[in-house]
Amino acid sequence: MATDPSEYDMATPIVEAHLAKVERAVSRTSSSHAGQSYTEVRKALVQALRDENAERVVPQVVDEFTRRISEEPDTLPF
Fold this sequence. Notes:
By secondary structure, the chain is mainly α. It is built from 3 helices and no strands. It is 72% helix and 0% strand.
């Protein structure tokens, strides 16, 4: 079943806004918690995502961002 291309056009701003919220939460958490324990980083990241109203993130993505902030903060893309 084909999807009308205009549906993508309508969804794009919504997706971009959500990704910007996630980016802000990750960036803020990285700035304040880089190199700290996984547990502390995860708590801070989950709270930052809540603060941004961006809780709807795949758990594995949250786990990977948490790991990178904790262990490899210089490898984040932003």
